[in-house]
Design brief:
This is Probable DNA 3'-5' helicase RecG. By secondary structure, the chain is an alpha/beta fold. It has 25 helices and 21 strands. It has four domains: about 100 residues, Nucleic acid-binding proteins (OB fold (Dihydrolipoamide Acetyltransferase, E2P), Beta Barrel); about 110 residues, no CATH class; about 200 residues, P-loop containing nucleotide triphosphate hydrolases (Rossmann fold); about 180 residues, 3-Layer(aba) Sandwich (Rossmann fold), CATH 3.40.50.
Length: about 725
Amino acid sequence: MTTTDTPLTKVLGAKTAKALAQHLDLHTAGDLIYHFPRRYDERGEHTDLRQLQVGEQVTVLAQVQGIGVKPMRARKGNMLEVTIGDGSGATLTCTFFNQAWRERELTRGRWGLFAGKVTEFRGKRQLNGPAYQLLKADATQDEAAEEIEEFAGALIPVYPAAQAVPTWVIAKCVRTLLDTFEPPPDPMPAPVRAKRNLVGIGTALREIHRPSSDAALYSAKHRLKWDEAFAVQLTLAQRRARAAAAPGTARPRRDDGLLARFDAGLPYELTEGQRQVGEEIAADLARAHPMHRLLQGEVGSGKTLVSVRAMLQVVDAGGQAALLAPTEVLATQHFRGISAQLGALGRAGELDGDPLGTQLTLVTGSLGAAARRAALAKVADGSAGIVVGTHALLYEGVEFADLGLVVVDEQHRFGVEQRDALRAKAARPPHVLVMTATPIPRTVAMTVYGDLETSVLSQLPRGRSPIASHVVPALEKPAYLDRAWKRVREEVQAGHQAYVVCPRIGDGPEADDGDAPPPETESARRPPLAVTEVLPALRDHHLKGLRIDMLHGRMPPEEKDAVMRRFAAGELDVLVATTVIEVGVDVPNSTVMIIMDADRFGVSQLHQLRGRVGRGSAPGVCLLHTEAVEGSAARERLDAVASTTDGFKLSEIDLEQRREGDVLGASQSGKHSHLRLLSLLRDEKLIKEARAEAAELVGDDPDLSRHPALAASVAALVDEDRAEYLEKG
């Protein structure tokens, strides 16, 4: 009998096993049995050729409709052209070079499976040298149906394949494997299986590959999706249980401390959302277990203010708070912003400081030696109640007197190594607040951030101005781009400032300061526009006479800081930058942003970027420059961004266009993943149910010691690296 651990060499032979290993990273029977079909063709319901897209790797069930051999013009030899169709009226041309002998088997009327990449030549779609599997010659419809049934069952599975290993080869391998496969004992607890109406694991694995009916296929998919969701949610439930049991230090709120004085001095009222989230965080901080909370909020919803109030509560309770930003630019920006908010309360010990206040300190790698020593001394002796810096705060000899709260800006999530570093900074694990301005769909929050309690700020503070967004189709309407530059001049003449954002720094093939542009299928596109290319064009032509400078991640820290200072002080009219300005940069006088090659950015990233304008009393405008043609996927993405400022709606669109395996961490380790079927968009109900079951089971059996088979299954589906990814927070 064959088990999941059996090497494929023992099941399929050395040659086939080598091909599967080399091209698809499949090595064991378990790897192959969990290599699920990505779709199914139904017998008698052939693939509609009209739906095929140029660039797709496809497998179609089609009939030979015409065949001919002709000499090639540019070189010696001949070309065999075979026209195939599926009854929908659409056709594909299959071309074979110097293989005229195939004419003997590819006869008119013959049905077969054809696999290859769809290309286009002179307006006709074609497959160049496709692999194919023919059904019996001269087969009647019933005989053809029988052969398809024999070949792959009533529903024909179409597998993720490689050119060297087409889908029907995989199907044959799976069929050979199933003949001797002995499924493992079902790891799912019987009460859960009965309650959720789940078929057995053996049935599910057989039916996913060779479904006997649509209903059986649905049940198989449901069971295997459940396994994936349950494994992830059990991992997160165990993480939550460990966090809840960990000893921490309570930091209760005081009615007569810095927080109360800070609130009394605010020149505006907190929004209802800020008050509510503030109460949730205050209650967490008052408990003797570390808080692990995710704070989501639209750009400009006031997350930083919420975090400042939490930090003051911890300082009131005798502890210290650290705010970690992903870059020095943002750390410096936070330091300035919080300094302004705290005023004298953050300058204890200085001439104009409040003696009952605390000290706010900035620690970055670019500090001079003397300034760094002074800052670290304040951190070590506890006089610095609030410390702002990058992740370097966790290392490099930085010692805290009593670290009570870590605030992480922009979801820079901690893994095992960082958590250990945090624990080393405090006698007990500190409270952790993770902030993000990227709206996260509920299912992603439940799955990726499932070990964190979640708070959402949906209201914008009073006084924030609306942002209008428009697509600027540069190829179709060049005059629109000219008008965009005129709009920048008009805003500057009105006393405002502007951003011009580019996807690339320049002088190299890199995308930007670390974020790759979304994948596109369009070929022969020019490289994305770069800061170093756009800046001189603006200075010399489009925006000649305005005060313009640039900002990007490869500039020395002191240069970046100087540019940001000048822009914030109004000494620059236009800042040409990469996505280094995406988060945290707050210049209320900026009212217009032009994003060059906007189709090279993701939806959520565009939403983040435009949040940099309209932060004051004047309305903001974001212009999305693109050469993407109307009707293309890239253009539809930009139209969606222009149509709404609802970040959560846009986050759903963004998720649709990303590989969900990336969201689940499947690409993080580069290892083979068994998380394949679960959809974070379509399976919200299932994920919720799995979360509830996981919480109940872990509450009763925290280490799954009474469910060893389930524990092993979870380990297989969510391996150690992926578990670490999911545990980050």
